[in-house]
Amino acid sequence: MIWLTWRQNRAQLVTAGAAVAVVAVAAGWTGRRLADLVTTTDTGYDLLTPADIALFFAGVVMLAVVPGLVGAFWGAPMVAHEMETGTYRLVWNQSVTRTRWLATRLGLTALAAAAVTGLLSLAVTWWAGPIDGVVGARTGSLPTRLTPVTFAMRGVVPVAYTLFALVLGVVIGAVVRRTVPAMAITLGLFLAVQIAVPLWVRPHLATPADLTVTMDISTFDGLSRSGLDGPITLTAQPSDRGDWVLSNTTVDAAGAAVELPPWFAECVAPPGGPPRERAAAEGKGPLASCLARLGAEGYRQRLVYQPANRFWTLQWRESALFVLAAGGLAAVGLWWVRVRLS
Amino acid sequence: MTAVVRAEGLGKRYRRRWALADCELEIPAGGVTGLVGPNGAGKTTLLLLAVGLIRPTAGTIEVCGGRPGSDPAQLAKVGFVAQDTPTYARLTVADHLRLGARLNPRWDEAAARSRLDRLGLDPAQRAGRLSGGQRAQLALTLGLAKRPELLILDEPVANLDPMARRDFLQVLMEAVAEHELTVVLSSHLVSDLERICDRVVVLVDSHVHLEGEVETLLASHHRLTGARRDPARLPAGQHVVSERHTERQSTFIVRTDEPILDPAWTVGQLDLEDLVLAYMERPVPPPTAGRAAVGPALEVIR
Known about the structure:
The complex is a heterodimer. By secondary structure, chain A is mainly alpha-helical. Chain A has helices spanning 2-39, 50-85, 88-91, 98-128, 157-176, 179-201, 263-268, 277-281, 287-296, 311-340, and strands spanning 209-213, 220-225, 232-236, 244-251, 300-306. Chain A has a 3-stranded antiparallel β-sheet, with no helix packed on it. The longest helix of chain A has 38 residues, at 2-39. Chain A starts with a helix and ends with a helix. By secondary structure, chain B is α/β, with parallel strands linked by helices. Chain B has helices spanning 43-51, 72-77, 93-103, 109-119, 132-145, 162-178, 190-196, 214-220, 272-281, 287-301, and strands at residues 3-14, 17-28, 32-36, 58-63, 78-81, 150-154, 182-186, 199-204, 207-213, 221-227, 239-245, 249-255, 266-268. In chain B, the strands form 3 sheets. Chain B has a 6-stranded mixed β-sheet, with helices on both faces. In chain B, strands 11-12-10-13 form a 4-stranded antiparallel β-sheet. A 3-stranded antiparallel β-sheet of chain B has the order 2-1-4, covered by helices on one side. Chain A binds chain B through residues 1, 3-4, 7-8, 85-97, 100, 339, 342, and chain B through 51-55, 69, 71-73, 75-76, 78-80, 82-84, 86-89, 91, 95, 98-100, 102-106, 139, 142, 146.
């Protein structure tokens, strides 16, 4: 069975291995400079070239799509292609039960897929480590590693995603029995999971921290207005730039979420005048006094967030969740192939 | 007589359609048994059940003393050449042999190699580039080299040209002669079956309409042609299988163990195809009545 698995997948495996090697070499070649660069300054973003930034996001995109591709191209055809071409009638009549047939193929492919994504994630995590979340002196920054933009493209989570996508593909292939529809459904479902998890699951993997601050220039982060005449909302800075802020709301003295008082809009941006946030942030404009008045009236800013130091806690918890889901799906797949496909 | 395949009340339902229902069947060990019947009679379903690729919805089937496909030992006992003889298009002929060698404990590598040599199959050739006949031969080689007790073939020659068909059946017959192998094969080409089968089973709409040894069956069936006559007036020992009447003439196919003595009849010999067609055309009786009607007939045949 091991030989057959290898024989049926060697072309894909060699391709994947070559791709990993290319990525590793490219990361090693371009990454050493970054490590040196950032230790010299606090505002490393200003030293990054457009190519560095492009590579940063290329790494994000790569690790975002690799699990789905593994699910679609390694997972979905595993059973579906045998059903489609009729070869299941050949291979399931050798002296090997189909449970063992699927367990071996799935197990070995999972090992290979985990190795491929593990190495890719290692390369990207190492490469981006020095510049995750760097800021510039005046403008510009890269996302910190806890934000949804990069969290699932760092550390161990990509491996768990890949295992899940692989098994998902196998099960869908076994149910649908046709390769191309199974691939499409796998990609679609996995994309839905990738969107749903940061929105609704990851925030709850650990009880979020909760912080209420009095607004002043040092805690002020920004103002935004929805639409031309919509209400103004205020955001406070988290205590650590690496924190993942889940909600940033203004509360009154009793702690209930409220809108800003009507006078605030006129206070920070008098009619006719341009917004003065920039000047305000530097402590020159009326913002400081507006914020002081807010504080005096009992308004506070409430932050709900995952602190930056929970990165690995969240990584392991999310990985465990996906590996468990993959295990459950694998059991469904084995049962389906043994019972429902007969 | 030990049965190599025994089905009792066997049924298989796909969603709401019964592909096989209430099937009673016994196939003895040894020799070649041909399974014939019209399309949709349930032949493929029956064979898939026998190799364990599908599971019965109702009833039981026992093959070589075990439940089909239940464990590796059971799988090793039964070889299967599926309809359209599937092979891995991207694997070479040699890869297929290696697959067989890796996945089967009783694999007969030497026999497989010499068989492919004789067939002139290039081991480096990809199976996807083989002709239909060559692919069928490769599938047969895999099935035989597994050294099963029972080899099941589902319409193995249906899509082959006459030459390839003859070669295929010849290889099969050699293997049967060489090893103690029981073969069950389905076909709708009765002429092929006549050449190689020792026994025949006619399956119509899930029910066995006829089964027995070809020779015995041919010897005990006759075509009677003569002046028009009511079938009720035939002697008690002559069972009418089919009857056809014109204005003045009657043609009966009858089964009897006694010689035909009535000089009014022109007695004709039947070949297997006539016989099979006669039984296929019989109206399908309702299940319970059907078994009652076929039952005693089978007893007589045995």
